[in-house]
């Protein structure tokens, strides 16, 4: 009679506490139990060497002659001992310490091929089970036969989790070891309470990862970690005496941009007028720097610092301005040769030692490049597919994002976003989605992450350069055309600065929500100064987290700070 033929199981007491469905209704579960079908365990090489066929025959004869009074150990050769020496120390002791008595030849310590000791669980080699009758398999020595053995040399024996069928009479199955209940998510009370032996770690197995080292405490004299960036929420103005003295400008426009010098304290105003503004942010004082390079008006659109020099994109002129902050002197580099240059380049940005300029209104459609190592100018043609807006204006600004230059389109959605790849020296056009109906003349700013660009359009947008996706930023407040003159990224916020409007739009990159800051009542701020539609030029972000708004039509400098 097969042992499990006599087993009747009430499934109720076999349910695992918190077990999955496979352990709740045995009749629903598959069986892979068979007459040794999946039992593939065998002795390890060392075990087979110790107890080969001849050795077993000799031991049997000697053991029966002794009738229980004789203890025998097999005699091992040099190679056998060498093989045994490769096993873990605990298993060497077990293999070398066999004791035999009459009728007990199968009771020696035994290992599966995976080095799981007898009494343990080896799901790979002894994984046979039949849930509906509560029978499982574990590693055991079956050389001497016995109830539940899957052949004499399989090394696998059936066990039961049925409390009523454990142990007696002798043909009944043994109780399953604890590891069976653990591996199959059964009630622990259905298995033996003794810990199950396990295989030692393989010498070739990777070591478990070491727990991460606890952070070392900072040395006593170490500076405290920097606080998270503050939210810029306080706006004030600084009046600049004599800012309009001696200037000739349309609509009282004065400066289009501002750039911090190498000291990160001095702010240089990029001149639309006839002088460079050198502003000391520590003392709120302005010094006017005149130069014969400058025209009376309509000089430069934007600036970028490379080393100690500020390179300025020409507006109504043919040459790029170069201001040396070390000597407070100006020179220029010829870029175009138009008889009457109009709105020449829009914006300027640097990647390494080269600066780049997107064309604003140029009949020759040139994308300008300056190598600052020798101040030489070169250009590439913009594709014919790039359409212009009124007066053939193409782009309004230039910004660097990683190894690419982004050109912000002006007004006409057919212009698209210009993308210049500095690695391949190629210029391509990014078509705008249908939700963009008009871009306005807003500027652009780049996130420090090197892949994200924000457009200060009347409907602001964010452009992911890496994935080439453009997303609308929800601005629910009423806004007029040319609402924003530019933007600056600080911490988790993007600050869109006012142009014609009297509002800051503050976009939270984490929550993707936009709030607004009304500055109309700020002392020193004038609504629609001189009938102009340009309050401020492009903003400049200081290292300590202040946004400076260079006065374009306004007479006072604007400062947004924590």
Q: Can you describe what's shown?
A:
With 562 residues, this protein is mainly beta. Helices cover 7% and strands 30% of the residues. It has helices at residues 45-50, 53-66, 78-85, 89-96, 178-183; strands at residues 135-139, 156-160, 234-239, 255-260, 266-271, 276-280, 285-289, 300-306, 309-314, 319-324, 329-334, 345-351, 354-359, 366-371, 376-381, 395-401, 404-409, 417-421, 426-430, 444-446, 452-455, 461-464, 469-472, 484-490, 493-498, 503-508, 514-518, 536-541, 547-551, 556-561. It has a four-stranded antiparallel β-sheet with strand order 3-30-29-28, with no helix packed on it. Strands 4-5-6-7 form a four-stranded antiparallel β-sheet, with no helix packed on it. Strands 8-9-10-11 form a four-stranded antiparallel β-sheet, with no helix packed on it. A hairpin with a 6-residue loop joins strand 13 and strand 14. The longest helix has 14 residues, at 53-66. The chain is elongated, with a radius of gyration of 42 Å. The model is unreliable at 1-76 and 87-106 (pLDDT under 50).
List unreliable stretches of 5+ residues: 1-76, 87-106
Q: Largest sheet, described in full?
A: 4 strands, antiparallel
| Helical residues, percent | under 10%
In whole angstroms, how far apart are the ends?
87 Å
Q: Taking Cα atoms only, what radius of gyration do you get, to the nearest Å?
A: 42 Å
Number of helices: 5
| Order of adjacent strands in the largest pleated sheet | 3-30-29-28
The percent range for strand residues is 25-35%
Record field, number of beta strands:
30
| Structural classification | mainly beta
Q: Give the CA-based shape.
A: elongated
Taking all residues together, what is the mean pLDDT? 76
């Amino acid at each position: 009679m097969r042992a499990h033929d006599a087993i009747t199981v009430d499934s109720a007491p076999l349910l695992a506490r918190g077990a999955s469905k496979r352990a709740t209704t045995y009749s629903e579960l598959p069986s892979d139990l068979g007459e040794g079908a999946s039992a593939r365990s065998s002795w390890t090489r060392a075990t087979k060497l110790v107890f080969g066929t001849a050795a077993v025959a000799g031991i049997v004869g000697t053991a029966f002659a002794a009738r229980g009074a004789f203890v025998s150990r097999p005699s091992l050769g040099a190679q056998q001992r060498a093989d045994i020496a490769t096993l873990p120390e605990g298993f060497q002791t077990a293999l070398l310490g066999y004791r035999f008595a009459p009728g007990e030849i199968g009771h020696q310590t035994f290992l599966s091929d995976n080095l799981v000791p007898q009494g343990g669980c080896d799901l790979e080699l002894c994984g046979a089970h039949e849930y509906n009758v509560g029978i499982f398999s574990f590693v055991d020595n079956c050389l001497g036969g016995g109830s539940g053995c899957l052949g004499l040399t399989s090394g696998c024996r059936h066990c039961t989790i049925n409390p009523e069928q454990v142990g007696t009479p002798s043909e009944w199955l043994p109780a399953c070891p604890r590891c069976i209940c653990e591996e199959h998510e059964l009630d622990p009370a259905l298995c033996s309470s003794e810990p199950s032996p396990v295989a030692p770690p393989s010498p070739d197995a990777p070591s478990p990862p070491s727990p991460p080292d606890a952070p070392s405490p900072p040395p006593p004299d170490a500076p405290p970690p920097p606080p998270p960036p503050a939210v810029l929420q306080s706006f004030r103005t600084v009046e600049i005496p004599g800012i309009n003295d001696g200037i000739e400008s349309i609509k009282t426009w004065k400066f289009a941009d501002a750039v911090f010098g190498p000291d990160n304290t001095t702010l240089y105003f990029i001149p639309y007028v006839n002088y460079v503004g050198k502003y000391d942010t520590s003392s709120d004082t302005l010094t006017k720097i005149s130069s014969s390079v400058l025209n009376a008006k309509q000089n430069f659109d934007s600036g970028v610092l490379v080393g100690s020099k500020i390179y300025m994109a020409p507006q109504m002129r043919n040459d790029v301005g170069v201001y040396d902050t070390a000597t407070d002197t100006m020179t220029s580099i010829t870029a175009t040769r138009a008889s009457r240059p109009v709105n020449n380049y829009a914006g300027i940005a640097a990647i390494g030692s080269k600066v780049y300029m997107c064309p604003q209104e140029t009949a020759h459609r040139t994308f300008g490049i300056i190598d600052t190592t020798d101040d030489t100018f070169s250009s590439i043609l913009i594709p014919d597919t790039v359409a212009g807006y009124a007066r053939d204006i193409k782009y309004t600004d230039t910004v660097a994002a990683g190894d690419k230059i982004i050109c912000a389109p002006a007004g006409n959605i057919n212009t698209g976003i210009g993308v210049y790849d500095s690695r391949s020296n190629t210029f391509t056009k990014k078509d705008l989605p249908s939700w963009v109906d008009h871009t306005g003349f807003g500027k652009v700013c780049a996130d420090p992450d090197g892949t994200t660009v924000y457009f200060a359009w009347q409907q602001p947008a964010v452009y992911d350069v890496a994935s080439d996706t453009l997303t609308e930023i929800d601005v629910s407040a009423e806004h007029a055309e040319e609402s924003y003159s530019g933007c600056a990224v600080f911490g988790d916020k993007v600050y869109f600065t006012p142009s014609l409007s009297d509002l800051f739009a503050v976009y939270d990159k984490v929550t993707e929500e936009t709030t607004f800051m009304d500055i109309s009542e700020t002392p020193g701020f004038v609504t629609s100064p001189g009938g102009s539609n340009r309050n401020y030029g492009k903003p400049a972000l200081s290292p300590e987290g202040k946004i400076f708004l260079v006065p374009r039509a306004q007479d006072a400098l604007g400062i947004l700070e924590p």
